[in-house]
Structure prediction request, 349 residues.
Amino acid sequence: MIDLKPHKKNSAIIVTSRIRLARNLAHSRFANSASPEELSAIFDKCVHALSKVRKFKDGRLVRMSEISDFGKGMLMEERHVTRELLMAADFAGVYISKDGKASAMINEEDHLRIQAVAEGQCLNSIWRTVNAIDDAVEETLEYAFNDRFGYLTACPTNVGTGMRASLMMHLPALSTTEQIEKIVRGLNQLGMVVRGANGEGSESYGAFFQLSNQQTLGMSEPDIISKILKFGGKLAEFETNARLKLMQQSPLVLVDKIERSATLLKHCRLIDTAEAVSLLSNVRLAADMGFCKSAGALIKSVDAAIVDIQPSHLQHKFNIRESEPSERDAVRASYLNAFAETLPDFKVA
Prediction:
């Protein structure tokens, strides 16, 4: 049986941090009402401005009209682009920094959407990165700005700072104990939004959720970050308490989840993305709760595997670009079989 140790406070519940700024050019129609000629001019202006930004030195520009469906899938899985940008193929694209930690979408819903992401809880540091990019772009372009309302955006919910700050969080205990829905409703009433891992309209495979601000008007950027950190910390505390309660009151539920997941990962022959992420999520939970040695290394391996098993990344890794879902499911299963062989001993009798 698994040796149930006390849960460590320094867990990996917060997976990544992200900040996005929505910006539009002054004296220009929003992307959804601009003509092709206007969109083309906006695209060229944004590309020119971004090419001068220090963070994007030696970066790459990807035009949506020139990339394959496979390439679009890779960008989506790496969270550099949104579904909306993929659908706006003409005069739309994304500028990606060399290290892949910053990007700027051009002619999505807004003319520019500048974003940065990093591992763990580091909203303040990536805010400095995003703010520096924003300031550098503004040296070349004039933004649509109103003294009363702030930055003007295509969607009224983004008016003001235009900022969306978010934390990707791993909340398996709250999901298992069915507390997550109640907590989400409470956070919504406090001006926060909890969505699936890929943002609006996405599902929360493997108990990964994205916590972000709902309000952008009437608050400063530091205030938004402070609010996210406050409620992110509270949500992490709820998850920690749910894990402790699960250990104390329903240890067999926890043991069964971990043992069943390890077994399925080792012996599956066909598996889709959603089920695979759920199984890896349980392994991640076991590591994060200290049920094995080298827990930190295992968490990093699990997080890398979750990326590797996404459809486009899987096709790229194993050179199966033109494949049926069933073929990918078989390749994914084989990959996970090998991954499971590297798992440490979870002290299961």
Notes: Residues 1-10 have pLDDT under 50 and may be disordered. The first helix runs from residue 36 to 51. Residues 46 and 106 are 7 Å apart (CA to CA). Strands lie at 14-23, 60-63, 93-96, 102-106, 112-119, 145-146, 150-151, 163-170, 192-196, 208-213.
